[in-house]
Amino acid sequence: MPSPNDIKKGTIINRNGDLLLVVDFQRVSPGKGGSFVRTKTKNLRTGKVLEENLKAAEPMVFEDVQYKKMQYLFNDGNLYTFMDNQTFEQVSISKDEMESEIPYLKEGLEITVVMHNEAAVTVSLPQKIEYTVVYTEPAVKGDTASGNVLKEAEMDNGLIAKVPAFIHQGDVVVINTDTGAYSERISK
Question: Could you tell me if 31 and 71 lie in one domain?
Fold first, then answer.
């Protein structure tokens, strides 16, 4: 029987019929008392994020899931459609099931779709994605010297992110999808 010690990022836990995706976890071994696993899970039905401590001996039910590389195609307002580039099979996921990933999606982006019982339940984004800056205010003279002044920039998919003052319209930048923060500028 699996236990919390077997948890990894991306594990799907079945708790009372609800599927919970492990977003983050940390194993803790205090000096006194038993060890436990601090988890952050996302309910795949409701989208609610829950943080809890699980005792190491607590029995768990892990769900068998498949991970498929797919390409983001489009959305119709509520459903987001992805296509398997090998079989051309298309699946759709509702807006509610992937709310935190939506701002990072852009047409043609290759992502991992998590499948359970032949149904798409959520997506897993690459940790870093390249975007083209379509609009940002010009830098104010003197702000670029220190390099730690940030300004807002709009990306080619509509994402708004804070970038350093030296970034200009047309630059290609890398955004970290875990934090939403600027990571680096790509040289042309």
Answer: no
- The count of structural domains within the chain is 3
- Range in 43-57, 151-165, 173-187 the model is least confident about: 43-57
Q: Can you tell me the distance from the alpha carbon of 58 to that of 7, in angstroms, rounded to the nearest whole number?
A: 12
Question: Does residue 117 sit in the same domain as residue 161?
Answer: no
Closest residue by Cα to residue 22 from 37, 5, 42, 6: 42
- Domain of residue 158 covers 128-186
Residue 25: Cβ within 10 Å count: 17
- Spatial separation of the C-alpha atoms in residues 89 and 82, rounded to whole Å: 8
Sign of CA dihedral 94, 98, 100, 106: negative
The answer to whether residue 150 is domain-embedded is yes
SS3 70: strand
For 96-148, the pLDDT digits (tens) are 778 888 999 999 999 999 888 888 888 889 999 999 999 999 877 665 555 57
Structure tokens at 128: 């870093």
Tokens of 107: 């047409």
Residue 60 forms part of a structural domain: no
pLDDT at position 174 is 96
Residue 20 sits in a domain whose CATH number is 2.30.30.30
pTM comes to 0.77
- Strand order across the 150-155 sheet: 160-164, 150-155, 128-136, 172-176, 182-186
